[in-house]
């Protein structure tokens, strides 16, 4: 929401804040599968981010920081719920991590992240989870404290386990507050377990977390937690702010004396979305049943789930599958990343030991906030001169999803064949890299992993060009390219390009 230029009533501010809560379409999703349900005993975490924004891959190195260094967190007065930036203390050393950054969401300051994977094998996925209306209404204006992207980035920088990431997020909120667009959650995992962490609007420091074990699956859209034990502070499977239950009682949202279980979703979450229902074409119960039925789950099966056109469409800013194992050295922690919506884009394997990202997968001006109002900084001209992978595969998506009955099967088959070759060879790649690291040649090991991912990434680009040329040529010759209605390019809302035949993936099946 833009800065208000003249006085308005409190009622108008409240209404504007509620309307600023993201549409159900603009919301990330995530999948967790525990290690007892996978083929190799790993934990798998998949999903995507949904932002009208440019996305780029970045490998952030381990860094040392001087005493007194700080981190700027929060939101500005341009955010959907206005706030102010503050600083918090930095730690002496931050860990190496891989992330997909993006350029704009709800007026929050860029670069933003939904999470990623760090050198200790901690993976984080941001998932929308809107708080109830009363909490949004009572959010201070201006608000302050770390926002969802700050929490994900700081946890990646500091956490050695998924549990520790939850503790870090909770401690940040306890000590510094929380800035929000209306509530949020994170799905976090390591080689042993997963956690769902919910952060609530209201400025009261409310947060809650639930552990996901080795025999569990979870589909988050939105992130949810159901019944919560009253002794959660002493329960190893739950965490939360000290006021989590007492505040609900003060507001009259929960009556402990009545003997009714304390239900996080029923008390604190958006009340017009039944728990576990979701808001897309698929229901959460349906996807969780499919995840369980797919056992033993593999990375290939998880990629297929993330790519499913019931879920993946133009709003899916990128696809991601973290393969979390306990039998590899830190440099071999692995995440598969599709540069844009994976319905028509390949997953490329990136190891934490890799040193660099090809410029084609790095930052570009495409859909960067306010890019059209400025000329390019010359320092970025060589990077900008390269082709942007996100744009290439967006073009393939637009052509394919215009005629999904004709083109989607062959595009999917080609992508899965390309990924299948990489899945078949990744074991040999990791064994080779492990030998190089074991011989105390870490620089050579990292160069090898960089070479492998860079090579496969550029092969993915060539595959994209071939598919695009084929689909575009036939689209023009057989169907023609219709003129844009009214001469407008940008969508003003409603259904966006998708490959789900006969349906809108952002509307419930029923």
Task: Give a structural overview.
The protein is of the alpha+beta class and 510 residues long. 33% of the residues lie in helices and 19% in strands. Strands 3-8-9-10-11-12-13-16 form an 8-stranded antiparallel beta sheet, with helices on one face. Helix 3 crosses helix 4 and helix 10 (389-402) packs parallel to helix 12 (442-479). The longest helix is centred in the C-terminal third of the chain and has 38 residues, at 442-479. The radius of gyration is 22 Å and the shape is globular. The chain starts with 9 loop residues before the first helix and ends in a 31-residue tail after the last helix. Mean pLDDT is 91; it is low at 1-25.
Tag the structure with descriptive keywords:
single chain; 510 residues; alpha+beta; eight-stranded antiparallel beta sheet; six-stranded antiparallel beta sheet; 12 helices; 20 strands; 33% helix; disordered N terminus
Cα distance, first to last residue?
33 Å
Strand line-up of the largest beta sheet? 3-8-9-10-11-12-13-16
In one word, what is the shape?
Answer: globular
Mean pLDDT across the residues is 91
Judged by helices, strands and strand pairing, the structural class is alpha+beta
Beta-strand residue fraction: 15-25%
Number of helices: 12
Total number of beta strands: 20
Task: Indicate the radius of gyration in whole angstroms.
Answer: 22 Å
Kindly state the percentage of residues in helix.
Answer: 25-40%
Task: Describe the largest sheet.
Answer: 8 strands, antiparallel
Stretches where pLDDT falls below 50 for ≥5 residues? 1-25
């Amino acid at each position: 929401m833009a800065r208000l230029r003249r006085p308005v009533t409190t009622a108008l501010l409240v209404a504007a804040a509620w309307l600023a809560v993201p549409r159900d379409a603009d919301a990330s999703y995530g999948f967790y599968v525990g290690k007892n349900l996978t083929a190799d005993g790993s934990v798998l975490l998949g999903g995507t981010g949904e932002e009208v924004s440019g996305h780029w891959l970045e490998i952030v190195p381990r860094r040392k920081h001087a005493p007194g260094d700080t981190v700027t967190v929060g939101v500005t007065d341009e955010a959907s719920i206005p706030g102010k930036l503050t600083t918090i203390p930095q730690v002496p050393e931050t860990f190496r991590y891989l992330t997909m950054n993006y350029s704009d969401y709800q007026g929050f300051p860029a670069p933003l992240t939904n999470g990623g994977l760090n050198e200790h094998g901690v993976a984080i996925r941001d998932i929308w989870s809107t708080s109830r209306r009363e909490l949004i209404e009572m959010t201070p204006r201006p608000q302050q404290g770390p926002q969802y992207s700050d929490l994900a980035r700081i946890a990646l920088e500091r956490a050695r386990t998924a549990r520790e990431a939850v503790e870090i997020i909770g401690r940040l909120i306890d000590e510094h507050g929380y800035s929000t667009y209306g509530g949020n959650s994170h799905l976090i995992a390591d080689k042993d377990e997963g956690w769902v962490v919910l952060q609530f609007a209201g400025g009261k420091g409310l947060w809650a977390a639930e552990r996901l074990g080795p025999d569990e699956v979870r589909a988050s859209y939105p992130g949810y937690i159901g019944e919560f034990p009253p002794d959660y502070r002493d329960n190893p499977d739950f965490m939360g702010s000290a006021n989590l239950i007492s505040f609900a009682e003060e507001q009259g949202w929960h009556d402990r004396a009545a003997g009714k279980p304390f239900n996080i979703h029923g008390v604190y979450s958006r009340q017009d979305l039944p728990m576990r229902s979701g808001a897309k074409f698929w229901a959460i119960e349906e996807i969780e049943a499919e995840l369980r039925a797919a056992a033993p789950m593999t990375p290939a099966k998880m990629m297929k789930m993330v790519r499913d056109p019931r879920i993946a469409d133009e709003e899916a800013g990128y696809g991601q599958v973290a393969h979390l194992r306990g039998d590899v050295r830190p440099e071999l922690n692995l995440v598969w990343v599709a540069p844009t919506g994976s319905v028509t884009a390949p997953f490329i394997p990136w190891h934490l030991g890799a040193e660099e990202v090809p410029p084609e997968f790095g930052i570009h001006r495409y859909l960067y906030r306010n890019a059209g109002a400025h000329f390019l900084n010359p320092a970025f001209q060589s990077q900008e001169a390269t082709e942007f992978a996100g744009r290439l595969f967006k073009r393939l998506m637009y052509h394919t999803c215009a005629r999904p009955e004709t083109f989607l099967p062959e595009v999917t088959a080609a992508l899965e064949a390309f990924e299948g070759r990489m899945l078949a060879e990744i074991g040999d790649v990791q064994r080779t890299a492990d030998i190089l690291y074991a011989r105390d040649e870490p620089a050579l090991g990292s160069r090898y992993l960089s070479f492998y991912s860079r090579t496969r990434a550029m092969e993915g680009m060539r595959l994209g060009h071939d598919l695009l040329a084929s689909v575009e040529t036939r689209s023009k010759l057989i169907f023609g390219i219709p003129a844009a209605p009214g001469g407008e390019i940008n969508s003003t809302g409603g259904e966006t390009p998708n490959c789900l035949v006969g349906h809108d993936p952002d509307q419930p099946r029923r």
